[in-house]
């Protein structure tokens, strides 16, 4: 006689959905987010930032996902449609894009991170899941969420919070967890002047990654109560999480327990690429002989929309006019024509013309670098036309006059900046 009871899924990921918060502008990225939300910013040659949390969810076995969008979401939505449209509803796989669409009231957009979930409670209900994992859409890392889900179930926590270990002297820039020896969070401090250390390691602190695991039934009730509170900011970090910590139901999950590393990666990799300096550094770091993040790991692939493009091409082999790239990442449909590229990352469709030099440059898709240009320590926005003989990265005062130069000495170049320069100089 056969057992008529349905089998329970063997993985908790089968009972979970990922809710990705991708509506933020990311204003610290300055002009890079004038036309796109931060999660839609390009990264690593052919990916977008949001591909990392989505790929983590997919590789972890999660097949139900929702993405809440708000600020200038067109490029993000287009990327989702082109690169993430392989989910099959007949197999119980779903990926819903949830723009702020005044579903609750005509004057009500998403008021905070928690409110973004609250306004879509009916959609989450339809998924019929036991667990919800809340993810930020704007961090770069590789992580197996199944391990975090197991910890959540084993501890019986009300919420499990993903945390990274950071040097205690740097922890004032984060939300920091104070925990006991069992991992229970005893206090949550937002950017504290005197961060609490990890038990047994006074030099390190636990900082929040903005990753939360809940049982859906509990989160649902918390969100409905929060929606009725006129004094709330309707935010996970400021409202929902402190409430659970006070009640004693919050546990920390250390990223080091679930990060995905290959033999080339020697320590857990997580980056908030939320400033121009951090964005430039993380991309340039990929050109290192052994980068801290292994983007060649096919066993934990970063899924994305990949254009059909011809291979990169290097032309001219004369003295002083040799097309070459050294310790650099060059994407498809790039042509390096009689120019030198060093320690740089070029996205799809770049053209680098003769006698030009690029050093530590991050160049987004379809940039055209004119003859004789000399650029170093720069980020170039997509579809920019760099004029001939432009020099950037050698005279800070001149760079600051026309472009955005950061405290770290990185220059951001956009087409609007170049147009203003040309109009002022009568070029």
TrEMBL record:
Q: Which InterPro entries match?
A: ADP-Glc_PPase, ADP_Glu_pyroP_CS, GlgC_bac, GlmU/GlgC-like_hexapep, NTP_transferase_dom, Nucleotide-diphossugar_trans, Trimer_LpxA-like_sf
Write the record's keywords in alphabetical order, separated by commas.
Answer: ATP-binding, Carbohydrate metabolism, Glycogen biosynthesis, Glycogen metabolism, Nucleotide-binding, Nucleotidyltransferase, Transferase
Q: What is its EC number?
A: 2.7.7.27
Q: Which reaction does it catalyse?
A: alpha-D-glucose 1-phosphate + ATP + H(+) = ADP-alpha-D-glucose + diphosphate
Write down the CDD domains for this protein, in alphabetical order: ADP_Glucose_PP, LbH_G1P_AT_C
Annotated pathway = Glycan biosynthesis; glycogen biosynthesis
Positions bearing the site annotation: Could play a key role in the communication between the regulatory and the substrate sites? 70, 109
**Pfam families, sorted:** Hexapep_GlmU (PF24894), NTP_transferase (PF00483)
**UniProt family annotation:** Belongs to the bacterial/plant glucose-1-phosphate adenylyltransferase family.
Entry function: Involved in the biosynthesis of ADP-glucose, a building block required for the elongation reactions to produce glycogen. Catalyzes the reaction between ATP and alpha-D-glucose 1-phosphate (G1P) to produce pyrophosphate and ADP-Glc.
Assembly notes: Homotetramer.
Protein name according to UniProt: Glucose-1-phosphate adenylyltransferase
């Amino acid at each position: 006689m056969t057992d008529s009871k349905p089998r329970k899924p063997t993985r908790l990921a089968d009972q979970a959905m990922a809710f990705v918060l991708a509506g933020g502008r990311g204003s610290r990225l300055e002009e890079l987010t004038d036309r796109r939300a931060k999660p839609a910013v390009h990264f690593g040659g052919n990916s977008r930032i949001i591909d990392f949390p989505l790929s983590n969810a997919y590789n972890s076995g999660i097949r139900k996902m929702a993405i809440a969008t708000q600020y200038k979401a067109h490029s993000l939505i287009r990327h989702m449609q082109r690169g993430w449209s392989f989910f099959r509803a007949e197999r119980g796989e779903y990926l819903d894009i949830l723009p702020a669409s005044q579903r609750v009231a005509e004057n009500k957009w998403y008021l905070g991170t928690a409110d973004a979930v609250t306004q879509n409670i009916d959609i989450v209900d339809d998924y019929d899941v036991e667990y919800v994992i809340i993810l930020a859409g704007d961090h770069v890392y590789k992580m197996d969420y199944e391990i975090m889900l197991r910890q959540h179930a084993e501890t019986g926590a009300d919420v499990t919070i993903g945390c990274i270990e950071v040097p205690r002297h740097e922890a004032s820039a984060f939300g920091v967890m104070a925990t006991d020896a069992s991992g229970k969070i005893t206090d949550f401090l937002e950017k504290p002047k005197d961060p609490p250390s990890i038990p047994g390691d006074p030099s390190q602190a636990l900082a929040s990654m903005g990753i939360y695991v809940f049982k859906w039934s509990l989160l649902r009730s918390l969100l409905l109560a929060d929606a009725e509170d006129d004094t709330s900011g309707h935010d996970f970090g400021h409202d929902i999480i402190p409430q659970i910590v006070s009640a004693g139901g919050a546990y920390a999950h250390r990223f080091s327990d679930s990060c995905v590393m290959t033999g080339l990666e020697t320590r857990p990799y997580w980056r908030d690429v939320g400033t121009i300096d951090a964005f430039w550094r993380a991309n340039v770091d990929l050109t290192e002989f052994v980068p801290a993040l292994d983007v060649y790991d096919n066993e934990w692939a970063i899924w994305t929309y990949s254009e059909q493009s011809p291979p990169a091409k290097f032309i001219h082999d004369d003295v002083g006019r040799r097309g070459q790239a050294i310790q650099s990442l060059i994407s498809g449909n790039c042509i390096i024509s009689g120019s030198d590229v060093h320690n740089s990352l070029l996205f799809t469709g770049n053209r680098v013309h003769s006698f030009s030099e690029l050093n530590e440059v991050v160049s987004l898709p379809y940039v055209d670098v004119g003859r004789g240009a000399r650029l170093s320590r720069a980020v170039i926005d997509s579809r920019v036309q760099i004029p001939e003989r432009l020099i950037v990265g050698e005279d800070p005062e001149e760079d600051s006059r026309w472009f955005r130069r950061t405290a770290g000495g990185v220059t951001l170049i956009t087409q609007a900046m170049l147009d203003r320069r040309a109009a002022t100089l009568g070029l």
